[in-house]
Write a structure and sequence with these properties.
There is one protein chain. By secondary structure, this protein is mainly beta. The protein is about 5% helix and about 45% strand. It has two helices and 26 strands. The strands form three sheets. Strands 1, 2, 5, 8, 11, 12, 15, 18, 21, 22 and 25 form an eleven-stranded parallel β-sheet that branches. An eight-stranded parallel β-sheet has the order 3-6-9-13-16-19-23-26, with no helix packed on it. Strands 4-7-10-14-17-20-24 form a seven-stranded parallel β-sheet. β1, α2 and β2 form a beta-alpha-beta unit. The longest helix is centred in the N-terminal third of the chain and has 15 residues.
């Protein structure tokens, strides 16, 4: 019985280590193709949104290209073998242009997902409640572990400037049950003209997230708050630069601050150009 159990565990391990796949997306592609090479690239976000990816998979958008709509990532990686959403070829970062939807990029209840080297915008004809550039959502008592946001250019997100309905450039939210984040890193991102907030955590369930790191980000011309930690224990916020906060909000706002959090470390950050009341 012990030997059979060992064999079973070995086979399960092999199955969980499926070969990593690279999927390519290009406006000149075709969604009927397999997407497994640049020559056989998919074409649209709709195609990507309908696929659940596996640990080790990469979804790569062609640089210098524009993709209209909303990117929804599905599937989870594992420690040391994440799902990567990124770019290929040379040129400017691929642009995800949501055009006024709820969010431009959305990850929900996933683990070990890395999003990197994208340009993201979500500009509607008028400002809207809770409009977001990149949204991470943990709910239904789940724990989102090992999420990485790196080298993103998020700009022109015209969410509401009113607290409680405000918009965000990057938002990570835990809304129900005991849902939370663990080992989340947001680094080397550039945010410009995002309303109301730049990088923001929202916790609606009282459960503290852990291992949150926000570092080396540049925020410019932010409508309200620059960086807000709400509902974490032991968060680290360092080497961030905010140039211009509360540029459009009519209520109080702060450059970088915590709320309902313990043991938050702020170090080596720079805030300037906060507009007064």
């Amino acid at each position: 019985m012990i030997r059979l159990a060992s064999v079973f565990a070995f086979l399960c391990g092999l199955l969980s280590q499926a070969p990593a796949r690279n999927f390519y997306v290009d406006p000149a592609g075709n969604d009927t193709r397999d997407g497994l090479s640049a020559a056989n690239a998919w074409q649209t976000l709709t195609k990507v949104n309908g696929v659940t990816f596996l640990a080790g998979d990469s979804v790569l958008f062609s640089r210098g290209s524009r993709f209209a709509g909303r990117l929804i990532t599905r599937g989870s990686g594992v420690a040391g073998n994440p799902i990567v959403i990124g770019a290929y070829a040379t040129g400017n970062p691929p642009l995800i242009e949501a055009g006024g939807q709820a969010d431009a990029v959305w990850v929900q209840n996933a683990a070990y997902v890395e999003i990197t080297a994208l340009e993201v915008t979500n500009l509607g004809t008028t400002a809207a409640n809770s409009r977001v550039g990149v949204r991470l959502t943990s709910n239904n008592s789940g724990i989102m572990r090992g999420i990485r946001l790196r080298n993103l250019y998020v700009h022109d997100v015209n969410g509401s400037l009113v607290k409680a309905t405000e918009g965000h450039g990057i938002l990570f939210e835990s809304n129900s049950g005991s849902s939370r984040f663990d080992d989340l890193i947001i680094e080397n991102c550039h945010l410009v003209r995002t309303d109301r907030n730049g990088i923001c955590q929202f916790t609606g369930n009282g459960t503290r997230s852990t291992g949150v790191i926000i570092r080396n980000n540049l925020l410019e011309d932010i409508g309200g708050d620059g960086i807000k930690i709400w509902g974490s224990t032991g968060a680290l916020v360092e080497y961030n630069v905010l140039r211009g906060g509360r540029m459009r909000a009519q209520d109080y706002a702060a450059g970088i601050w915590p709320f309902a959090s313990d043991n938050t470390v702020f170090q080596y950050n720079e805030v300037s150009g906060m507009k007064g009341i």
